[in-house]
User: What shape does this take?
Amino acid sequence: MRIFIGLLLLLVAASCSSDSKNIPLALGLPGDVYFVMDSAQWKGPLGRTLDSIFSEEVPGLPRKESLFTTRWIDPRRLNAALKQRRNLIFVMTLDRNDQGARIVRALFTPESIEKVKSEPEKYNRTAADVFARNQEVLYLYSPNEELLRQHVIRNAPSLISHFNIKERERISHSLFKAGEMKGLTQLLQKEFHCEMRFPFGFKLADKDTNFVWFRQINPKDDKDIFIARKKYSSRQSFNKGELIAFRDEICKKYLFGDPARTDSYIVTEMRPYIPVTVDTVNFNGHFGMKMYGLYRSKDYLFGGPFVSFALVDEGRHEFYYLEGFTISPGRDQREIMRELETILYTFRTSKELTTAP
Assistant: This one.
């Protein structure tokens, strides 16, 4: 279910988002989500449900990391600095009369309260740049706590997706603000009939007729993206087994930790406790498959997470496999993988090129 953006009027949204140029830049770390709600509700079933949804473990990482870092703000202590957090979620139900609940409810106009009562099937509204620029605010509301909890449970995937998209938008802005490697984009346009944007620091690592590999080597991590293609034959190419087989074929041929060692090529990690996951996605308007999991070198000297997308360029009847992976031992990798996924989403097929090759 899509997040509902209705006609519900909020005093705070109307008064604070009229001119985003005159408000400060949002504060906070990537992946932080702040909940503003009554303390009893935060500690109760509703708060535990919200916390568990947003703190769910990120799939496909070698160690436990949550989807988002959740934090609670006591409405009684909601000062100017806390209002400027990058991701804010206000939670209000009409069946509570604690001090914190009254403070949150006071953000809603009388007309809004009447809509909450008369339209119980609607439970949320989003707003951008309410207290700060580059800020995303979500309002969750309902006549009573249990009804709101059920709404949240049923729509958990869309809530998570909403903030994931917003984080990718922020990452995209910061990645390319310092410049980009347009020569790499032009290489793809000319030789591979596709397009992808690369932030400053990425370099060409290897290239063949149907394969190209880009790397950004940093002091603490190694960020890698490769693109492989083949003629599209059938829908079978999107099956999980076929995707893994194609990935392993490409990795064995091109991706080595040490090219001088034939046993240092990359393989898909197939141990059952961290499985490879495949999901159907809408990739920039194309049917696609998203695959994520772990990889390792054949000699067990290094490994880490990967994320990939598979899609077809219908005009050229070509099957594209795009992957981002990192070598970053001992580091949290959630935000690195978000960054790589953001770059992958800049991929465009032959009909969508921004500049003719």
The two ends are 40 Å apart (CA to CA). The domain at 180-352 is CATH 3.40.1000.10 (Protein Transport Mog1p; Chain A). DSSP finds eleven helices and 13 strands in the chain. Confidence is low (pLDDT under 50) at residues 1-18.
